[in-house]
Amino acid sequence: MKLINKIIRLNVTAALIIAAVALPHDLGNAAVDGASAFRFSGDGHLKIYNTHTKKTISIIYRDSQGVYDDEALKELDGLLACHYDKKQTEMSLKLIELVDYIQDHFAASEIQVISAFRSPEYNSRLRRRSRNVGKKSFHMYGRAMDIILPGVSSQKLRNFALSLKSGGVGYYGPGNFVHIDTGPVRRWSAL
To answer: Global pTM?
Structure first.
């Protein structure tokens, strides 16, 4: 999965560069300005609070020309690392863009992340304690986050995420987090 994320990160940047060079100047700029290879993309700026580490970052991971900042992405990967054993992976760009899009839609001041990357060891440990943890959880591949948006009900967040039809959405009840992933479109409730 790490190799796939690396290829996606490189291909998105390469596609934007090729578009800028290969297309006529005015068309190239129109195609590249703020462009993203993903159906749902935010503004390239995220403010994330990790509820386990108590760390917050406010970061620009993609500039107005659509170019991803590798250092910023590495910083995001670090913030979203497994809090249990500090292991980390390259988080899915599709997931980062999707969560940014959701934050922008609600004009939320920040995203509170309950869980992002989980090491296989930590995922196994959670599975022993809860039936709500998948054996092949998208968290283990950097393709899922459990999030809260302050000031936005979990029902509104769930409903909006479902309307996007961009992956899995798990609902854990009023006042709780919502699971967002970039896997197949599906939904579940753990009530």
So the answer is: 0.80
CA separation for the pair 178, 181 (Å, rounded): 10
Q: Which H or E element spans position 98?
A: helix 93-106
User: Edge-to-edge strands of the sheet including 56-60?
Assistant: 56-60, 45-50, 111-115, 144-148, 178-181, 168-171, 186-189
The angle formed by the CA atoms of residues 99, 32 and 94, to the nearest 5 degrees, is 25
Domain assignment of residue 8, given as a range:
2-189
pLDDT band for 6, please (50, 70, 90 cuts): low
What local confidence, expressed as pLDDT, does residue 102 receive?
97
Number of domains in the chain: 1
Name which of 25, 172, 3, 183 is nearest 94 in CA terms: 183
Q: Tell me the three state secondary structure of residue 104.
A: helix
Q: Please, which pLDDT band fits residue 134 given cuts at 50, 70 and 90? A: confident
The C-alpha atoms of residue 117 and residue 146 are separated, in whole angstroms, by 10
| CA 55 – CA 41 distance, rounded (Å) | 24
